[in-house]
Specification:
With 161 residues, the protein is an alpha+beta fold. It is 35% helix and 22% strand. The chain folds into two domains: 23-86, SH3 type barrels (Roll); 104-161, no CATH class.
């Protein structure tokens, strides 16, 4: 039956239309800190930051970027960093000591500590530790410029159309 794919496609199109922002609309920061940039470019100078749940007024839209104001400061944000729905005032997942938004990439990708390596050796997991070290070396070899080029070529993130 062909009606199911068409129905699914129409739902997806409606959802994408709902996610579009209009000038004058209010959106909310959904990051612990969202940078406000001088231009619609990930490499632009930061003119300010807004905190979690802060309301922002949309002034303009340019692709996946929104020009917003928080009242005092005007700047550009990547649309993926904001939401049309106000997030909860606090994280309700209180079984975790911290939120994912509070964890930096540096902490999440930190190398194995010496004690972790010793534990792996004691438990005959030395090969797994070596695999992690290999992956870390490979990741360290990739430059920020290479990541930006790849994202631009593939139309990912803020380079998407």
């Amino acid at each position: 039956m062909k009606t199911v794919p068409y129905f699914t496609l129409s739902l997806m199109l409606m959802a994408s239309a709902v996610l579009a922002y209009e000038v004058g609309q209010t959106c909310f920061s959904k990051q612990a800190t969202t940078p406000l940039l001088a231009t619609a470019d990930r490499e632009a100078a930061k003119v300010g930051t807004v905190e979690w749940g802060k309301p922002l007024k949309v002034l303009a839209e340019q692709g996946r970027w929104l020009q917003v104001t928080d009242g005092d400061t005007k700047g550009w944000v990547y649309a993926g960093n904001v939401s049309s729905v106000k997030p909860p005032a606090e994280n309700k997942n209180d079984f975790l000591p911290t939120t994912a938004a509070d964890t930096t990439a540096a902490v999440a990708a930190r190398p194995l500590s010496e004690s972790s390596k010793k534990y792996a050796s004691r438990k005959s997991l030395g090969e797994a530790a070596a695999d992690v070290e290999w992956a870390e070396k490979q990741a360290d070899a990739v430059t920020r410029a290479q990541v930006n080029t790849y994202m631009q070529e593939k139309g990912l993130g803020d380079y998407g159309k």
